Amino acid sequence: MRRMPGRFATVGTVARKAGAWKFVMGDRDSDDVLKDFFVPDYILGHGSERVGDFSHAPACPVIVFINSKSGGQRGGDLIVTYRTLLNKNQVFDLGEIAPGEVLRELYKNLEILKQDGDPLASEIQKRLKLIVAGGDGTVNWLLGVVSDLKLSEPPPVATVPLGTGNNLPFSFGWGKKNPRIDRQSVMSFLNQVKTAIEMKIDGWHLVMRMRALKEGSCDPIAPSGQTNSLNAFQQVFEPDPSYMDGFHKYCGRFWNYFSMGMDAQVSYAFHSDRKLHPEKFKNQLVNQSNYLKLGCTQGWFCTSCFHPSSRNIAQLANVRILRRQGQWEDLYVPRSIRSIVCLNLPSFSGGLDPWGTPDPKKSHERDLTPPYVDDGLIEIVGFRDAWHGLILLLPKGHGTRLAQTSRVHLEFKTRAADHTYMRIDGEPWRQPLPFEDGSVTVEISHAGQAKMLAPPSCRSKSLPIT
């Protein structure tokens, strides 16, 4: 049987004692509580010891993914705590191994064990849950991997807020402050995961097609200054009529939001500065302060002075949406809008809700429905500048509500700009555009659903069960 990549030494073993399973963590017995989360080594592909019967199947077996570079560099400390409490081999550092590699090998091993009649493998597969600790981009990465694997029983995902904005964890009730990393706090979180409810969340597919530039590359440029380093948005080379005709095709997926314009530009500057000077970004409060300062230096508060009007959304691209009746129509975007957000969850920019709660009368007049996370619709919101964004701090504050739709089509205008800034779930990039030929389109459409875990009370709402 093929072994899962041996990144870590084995510290958790399963021993047969008095006719029952006894979990041993190093030289000491695990707490009874921790047995519920423990995954034996042979299930993970480490070693070949198997036993046909067992007296205790873990109630909530987990696989833990942690971005060691997230949370002001606190991710590494969190890894240490989880590996102390659980089998070291069920806790993975995303800086060392990609989640797709782990899950493909795990599920391959589970299938082999199930075919051999191993009952524990079947129970673990049924009850398995994933935990991911990192920023919104890290969560996006894992959700995309789970979706692409097309598993018959995809595991639900619990999120640990370990980034700057933490919009995804906040939307599902896990908070937005970076967590405590001590043993007791982690055990408390594990117990919440065990009792959490499952919710579905819509995924959204983004496809951009553009003609190759006459000079230079049209690949998205990550904040590090490199290309092709984004998890959420990458070039694809599958056969496509437009691609074969000299076009390039890029695909991405988002679960919370796609944004374009000034807000993405500020986010790009923040991530660039953090990669150049990581020593300045040691905790969440400092990170948020630095983000605000960059918003000022980038002109987000004085856009009329610093931001070219040619990059305002209406001057940059034509936007079309698909109405519920199945008809496409042009979306009116005020000329003052410098940032546009296609939003799936009620959290943006560190927990603010750009859509808010529309007046029932206006909702009826505009054919708007409550913003559910699994209704196949996204909300489109516009912002003029950072001062406009500060309205969200008010009890009933909101951005400029533009539309609700199931599909969006953007077509960039010829010679509008030589580049723009885009962002998917906290992951920004600088997008070069062909200045002479405006054959650039971006299409957003529904891309299935994923399972999330949430405490009984969270701000995200699902469609009512009828």
UniProtKB/TrEMBL annotation:
Known catalytic reactions: a 1,2-diacyl-sn-glycerol + ATP = a 1,2-diacyl-sn-glycero-3-phosphate + ADP + H(+)
PROSITE patterns associated with the record: DAGK
Enzyme class: transferase
Annotated InterPro entries: ATP-NAD_kinase_N (IPR017438), DGK (IPR037607), Diacylglycerol_kin_accessory (IPR000756), Diacylglycerol_kinase_cat_dom (IPR001206), NAD/diacylglycerol_kinase_sf (IPR016064)
Keyword set, alphabetical order: ATP-binding, Kinase, Nucleotide-binding, Plant defense, Stress response, Transferase
BP-aspect Gene Ontology terms: defense response
Pfam family name, one: DAGK_cat
Ranges of residues in domain DAGKc: 57-210
SMART domains recorded: DAGKa, DAGKc
Domain of life: Eukaryota
Keyword Transferase: yes
Annotated EC: 2.7.1.107
GO terms assigned for molecular function: ATP binding; ATP-dependent diacylglycerol kinase activity
Record PANTHER family: DIACYLGLYCEROL KINASE
Similarity comment: Belongs to the eukaryotic diacylglycerol kinase family.
Quaternary structure (record): Monomer.
Function text: Phosphorylates the second messenger diacylglycerol (DAG) to generate phosphatidic acid (PA), another important signaling molecule. PA is required for plant development and responses to abiotic stress and pathogen attack. May be involved in the accumulation of PA during cold stress.
Name of this protein: Diacylglycerol kinase
Taxonomic source organism: Eucalyptus globulus (Tasmanian blue gum)
Lineage, broadest ranks: Eukaryota, Viridiplantae, Streptophyta, Embryophyta, Tracheophyta
